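Hi all, long-time lurker, first post. I run a small reading group and we've been trying to get comfortable going from sequence to structure in the token notation. Rather than ask abstract questions, I figured I'd post a concrete chain and ask someone more experienced to write out its structure so we can walk through it together at our next meeting. Sequence below, copied exactly:
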Amino acid sequence: MRRKISIGITAIMLLLVLALPAAASDYTLGVFGNANEDDTINMQDVTYTELIILEYRDKTELSDAKYDGKINMQDVTQIELTILGKEKELTVIDTAGNTVTVKKPVERIVVLNHYAGRLIRSLGAKDKIVGIMLTFAVEPYCHFWPDLREIPVVSGHMARQPDYEAIMELEPDVLFSFVGSGDPEGLVEKLEPAGISVVLLDCSHTETYPEETRKIGYILNKRETAEEYLEFRQSIFDLVEERVEGLEPDEKKTVYYEFMRAYQTNGGGSRIDAVIQKSGGINVFGDIPQNSFEVDPEELLERDPDVVFKDMHTTPGYPMTDTSMLEEAREEMLSRPGWDELTAVKNDEVYVGSREAFVWIGGAMGVGHISKWLYPDLFEDLKPETFRKKYMEDWQGVPYQGVYTYPEPS
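-- Answer (accepted) --
Happy to help. Here is the structure in token form:
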């Protein structure tokens, strides 16, 4: 009898050890079934859920893998099926904070978010796309999307004015759209009653990109590919972080980043602010917690950045064949009143780039370019072109071409 009790206690203790949360990550993967609230779903979540059922652990929101308000052995089965990629449905929390249940397997996708479109193509699921927004199909962006030329267009640029009837006729399993552009609330209200799961994502912000990549990987049964892709992305961050982490505060260069219109910039907490910080720089307007705003020219002169970047925003580099457009934008900035007194201009550190150069791969491409521009001595061996080529050829499946920066980091 004592031996049976001892074995029982030992088994429970083993379960307790196995169910310990994994090493802390920067975020909790918002997929139901992630019972121990780390960044993945694995056998630890199975064990953790069993311990909840045995009342050895407190219930967590994501332990309700079946999303039915109960924690029981059905949740354990659901987690096991999710690990194997054989679940019939999957419930996630999207970037807008909406809880969305997606029927599996996903065979038909409408994508109204071009950043999500790149991720879907990187994960090898482009053949499942049956509907797109206008941005994919028109000049100059269509050159980057030759594989979608025959796909129906069901909304305007940036998910604006979606054609709900056309979307429903395509009978998609899931629609990916922007978290803050177009008509995200309307998409949810009008399409979900028709059985179409609407997942709102950003897919460009440095901080949320890994979780969103993994969510798409779970939804599309591309988990392993998602991890390989994130490893490629992380290799860029690791290379840069290793070299800039030793910089003293007074050694870090200050940066003014401009996009769209003259004197339009991004403040603290924005996607580009994160990119600048990861590159070892300091955003001169990082003390203003605002995503996009216009600055006073006199204020910029007072803050006197060491380096200036111009993001061409709506001008993609992929179809460009020469630097003339980038050179013109640079000359316009250099001719502005008072700019001849800026440290960046005196030291000839004014750089122009296409949108891709700053935001591709969730900001990793920006880190590769900006760090090279800021600290050429630290990154003599870093060739941003190498990352661009690998990304296009290996992960996007398109020929390497285009002009992305001027002057190019040497």
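A couple of things your group might point at:
The chain has three domains: 2-87, 102-221, 228-406.
The domain at 2-87 is CATH 1.10.1330 (Type 1 dockerin domain).
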